[in-house]
Amino acid sequence: MIARGLALAVVVALLDQASKLWILGLMLPRQPGQQIIELLPFFNLVLVWNRGVSFGLFNNPDSPWNALALTLVAAAIVGGLVVWLRRATHGLIVFAIGLVIGGAIGNVVDRLRFGAVVDFLDVHAGAWHWPAFNVADSAICIGVALMLIDSLLVRRELRT
Question: Which of 24, 31, 33, 103 has the greatest number of C-beta atoms within 10 Å?
Answer without folding.
Answer: 103
